[in-house]
Design brief:
transmembrane helix; 4 helices; single chain; 2 domains; DUF1640 domain-containing protein; membrane; transmembrane
């Protein structure tokens, strides 16, 4: 087996060795414009694009609109419940009270 293949095998097995080698090579890579450019291109593929952000924004906007609609629906239900409670109170408390006042006078 060639020395190169032996080195690759050892690098695959030994994480600390890979890290040490990377630390040794990184300053050299950063000194060369074409290597820096290659690194930046590789990194840029992992970054979010404007389109990714727009998709996310559209999703978040849709979710917010859905929540706002649900809150609006809930507000209508609460308002109707309040009216029903007031009507119930009137019919169970005030009507008998008014009838008692009218017929016991």
């Amino acid at each position: 087996m060639s020395i190169g293949r032996q080195l690759l095998e050892e690098l695959r097995r030994d994480e600390e060795l890979r890290r040490n080698l990377a630390e040794e090579l990184l300053p050299e890579v950063l000194r060369h414009r074409d290597l820096r450019k290659a690194m930046l291109l590789a990194l840029s593929r992992e970054m979010a694009t404007k389109e990714d952000i727009e998709e996310l924004k559209s999703y978040v906007d849709a979710r917010i609109n859905d929540v706002n609609r649900r809150i609006s629906d809930l507000y209508v239900v609460v308002k109707a419940s309040r009216v029903a409670i007031i009507a119930t109170l009137i019919s169970t408390i005030l009507v008998p009270l008014i009838l008692r006042i009218l017929f016991h006078s």
